[in-house]
Design a protein that fits this description.
Blueprint lengths: L1 H14 L9 H8 L4 E9 L7 E9 L4 E7 L9 E8 L12
Length: 101
């Protein structure tokens, strides 16, 4: 009797399917954009102030709206020498602080 009860209980636990709501906005976006990344090349020019031209690689991850910025330190511009300038994380957009020229 006990073995039959254990078998039925374990079987019923594993037989249930997970109920996932795919209509939920963030979860659906996460599933559709998993491992999709936008890559941008950027530079920061401070040569007019006796500075330098710094090159960056910007990754925007679509799955969770995060950004990562790497500085290219290789003199030939290869990605091999990229160092992390800003780690992967969310950027906050504050529209009141934007300066319009």
């Amino acid at each position: 009797m006990f073995l039959l009860y254990e078998f039925q209980r374990v079987h019923s636990l594993f037989a249930r399917k997970a109920q996932i709501n795919l209509d939920h906005g963030k979860f659906k976006k996460f599933l559709l954009n998993t491992q999709k990344v936008l890559r941008f090349w950027a530079y920061w020019d401070t040569r007019c102030d006796q500075g330098e031209l710094r090159k960056f690689l910007v990754h925007y991850f679509l799955e969770d709206d995060t950004i990562e910025i790497k500085e290219i330190t290789d003199p030939e511009g290869r990605i091999r020498g990229a160092e992390t300038f800003l780690g992967k994380g969310k950027l906050l957009k504050v529209s009141a602080c934007l300066i319009v020229i």
